[in-house]
Amino acid sequence: MTQKLNRTNYDAPAAPIRLVHLGLGAFHRAHQVWYTQKADPNWGYASFTGRSGRVSDQLEPQDGLYTLVTRSGDGDSPEVITSLVEAQPSYNLERFRELLGDENVSVVTLTVTEAGYHLAEDGSLLHDDDVKFDISELQKDTPEKLETAAGRIIYGLKARMAAGYGGLAVMSCDNVADNGPLTRNSVIGLAKEIDSELASWIESNVTFPSTSIDRITPATTDELIEDVKRETGFEDASPVVTEPFASWVIEGEFPAGRPEWEKAGVVFVDDIEQFERRKLWLLNGSHSLMAYYAQLKGHATVDEAINDPDVRARVEALWDEAANHLTADGLDIPGYRDDLIERFENPRIRHNLAQIAIDGGTKQRMRAVPIMKSELADGRPGNGAALSIAAWIEYILRADEIQDTRADDLEAARKSDDPVKALIAALDEELAANEDAVERIRGFHDEVKAL
Q1: Residue after which a domain boundary falls, among 208, 241, 268
Q2: With 270 labelled, which of 3, 23, 61, 425 sits at a CA distance of 20 to 30 A?
Q3: Whole-model pTM above 0.90?
Q4: CA distance 12 to 10
Q5: How far is CA 211 from CA 127, 148, 326, 449, in A?
Q6: Is pLDDT of 52 > 80?
Q7: What secondary structure letter does DSSP report for 125?
Q8: Do 199 and 247 share a domain, yes or no?
């Protein structure tokens, strides 16, 4: 006989809420909440969905409890996670405001994807429709709705300033380079449009730590829900599956305190830049290469792709290029590469290449493009990165519908007279102005379009 998973049936008193999160999804629950529970279960999370309220609807009847299934070649290890105390929909602005106005709340974390920061390439605030809407709404004492993460944070920080409490840390856990400065630009850029006094208070009191995060977290399936019910005896509407590997590197200060995450294996560093690049270029870079090149070859998952000798050779070539520019102490590039191969080969983590392929117009800007440009600057051709860009181009050209936040721009580029060059320019204008680089990518494109 099974039971509903909740705090009545499962003995897990709710911890005090001291952390707030925007972007409630599987990765957040497999990473930040899991690390927090390992470090100190007395720090509770209140987490808000991005736009849809689906996950909060599933977790609210469970009092925030869910099962995290760590899946390795040796089997499954299910664990009930208790540190998520509240699962809230994005539209509950007043609860968000109340929490940030609480002296006990010390850290806000975010997983809203790069598009969620609404910034132009130069780091300035985009005045798109969502930003314009929030500027208008934040002029009111009580906004009816806010569209951006920065808008919600500003609404909450205004309450904190009014209450006379000190600042806190706002920390992006999104998979983008320089995510601390990115978050700072988004929040302060929008605050300056609303209230100069509030913007000054944020600049003086709020910190924006940078992070490098890593843990593969595939989508939840009906099969996983049934596995959890059978293995644990609890009915869980929203379990999460993940791999054994996890990594979290942080640079920055926490003015209101934080959990002792280092007890759970989090690494604190003075300079995070090359740790970010290691993850973006090696893990994410190879993911993108496989997402396009291996799909063109007919593969569906990461483990299928990495076991194709041709795909593996392409991945290794990309890694060789990236490693030329990853030289900081403590990176252990050979060990990191070995770990990646082991993770990719895990047959029980079904990481779909089609899922990874979404939003390549943004992802490849941070993955293949900087590797190729770094190689070109050192007088090398950057063939591994060029192949990855070429495979993305062919993937876009074949797509019935482009699944990308930049779909309009990419649609226009692929309809141009020279779609290869136009799509390179959509990634990086400087790279597109380098005729030798364009011709090199074009040559690889001729190769991959024959697949």
Answers
A1: 268
A2: 23
A3: no
A4: 6
A5: 26, 21, 17, 37
A6: no
A7: B
A8: yes
Burial of 65 by CB count in 10 Å (0-12 exposed, 13-18 middle, 19+ buried)? buried
Q: What is the DSSP string of 233-261?
A: SEE-SS-EEE-S--EEEEES--TT----G
Task: Clarify whether residues 341 and 386 are in a common domain.
Answer: yes
Question: Using CA atoms, how far apart are residues 60 and 66, in angstroms rounded to an integer?
Answer: 10
One domain for residues 104 and 178: yes
Give 419-445 pLDDT, tens digit per residue: 999 999 999 999 999 999 999 999 999
Q: Note whether 343 and 427 are same-domain residues.
A: yes
3-state secondary structure of 111: coil
Question: Does residue 315 sit in the same domain as residue 368?
Answer: yes
Q: How many domains does the chain have?
A: 2
Distance CA 296, CA 391 (A): 8
Give the H/E segment covering residue 298.
Answer: none
Strand partners, 44: 17
434 and 309 in a common domain: yes
Domain that holds residue 24: 3-268
The number of angstroms, rounded, from the C-alpha of 1 to the middle of its chain's C-alpha atoms is 38
| Start-to-end CA span in the chain (Å) | 51
Residue 1: pLDDT band (50, 70, 90) is confident
Asked whether 434 and 376 are in contact (CB, 8 A), the reply is yes
Asked if pLDDT for residue 329 goes beyond 90, the answer is: no
One domain, residues 306 and 176:
no
Torsion of CA 108, 113, 118, 122, to 10 degrees: 100
